[in-house]
Specification:
The protein is mainly beta. It has one helix at residues 58-62; strands spanning 9-12, 18-21, 40-43. A hairpin with a 5-residue loop joins strand 1 (9-12) and strand 2. The termini are far apart.
Length: 68
């Protein structure tokens, strides 16, 4: 892996978001690129965020639960 390439990792947090770390390219289902200004972003898994696809913490108040 070259210095310009950075490994991308996705970590599922129990009862919370997916944390994406690294130089990931996020796209909509239509293939449009989603602007990202950070190397780490939290993606919503509960479906209730007001800033989808990003997490806004709504999962906490909603009682969202996961198996992992």
């Amino acid at each position: 892996m070259s210095e310009r390439e950075e490994a991308v990792t996705i970590t599922a947090y129990p009862d919370g978001p997916l944390l994406v770390r690294g130089a990931a390219v996020l796209e909509t289902s239509d293939g449009e690129r989603i602007p990202v200004s950070r190397r780490t972003v939290a993606l919503c898994r509960c479906g209730l965020s007001t800033i989808k696809p990003f997490c806004d913490g709504t999962h906490k108040a909603s009682g969202f639960r996961t198996d992992t």
